[in-house]
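Format notes (please read before filing issues)

Several people have asked whether sequences and structure tokens are stored in separate files. They are not. Every record keeps both together, in the order shown below: the sequence lines, then the token lines. Line labels are part of the format and must not be stripped during preprocessing.
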Amino acid sequence: MEALSRAIEPTAGMAFEKLVATLPQVTYRTGDTVLGAGLNTGRLLILKSGAVVILKDSVEIARVDQTGAVLGELSALLGQPHIADVRALVDSQFHVADGGVLEKDPMALLHVARMLARRLVAADTGIVELKKQLQAGQSSSILRRMLEKIEASLGGSSSGVAGF
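Then the structure lines:
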């Protein structure tokens, strides 16, 4: 089973890259709202260049600068409005796809599913570590650093796992 997974992953990644290359592009300027909480845009945005910040109730929860990071997939998968604001930190370019591509293209769906699975593993690992440190009575500065580490793992600055 693991060998099959290794054989499928590069194929899925290449198929997704080919799909992305055919998509139209949009540019957002520094400070622009890329996706707004409560809006149902029906779009997936794939970061081509730049960086964004993810804000939930005006609290920064992540920064994303990984080329290929997908934004808006939770809204597309759940058929509901976006759950956070996404703002451009610098001028940023995105490939734009209709969220329905996840229903039509199994490779796109597989790519997003893997991204979400990586984010879930990172969140789970971080929460367990944070609970251990809370139980050990760690100082607030250590707990804050741990929370920042969790936020970074969810944000995609190193793993391309963003999506809001």
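For reference, the curators noted about this record: The mean pLDDT is 84. Residues 2-155 form a domain with the Jelly Rolls fold (CATH 2.60.120.10).
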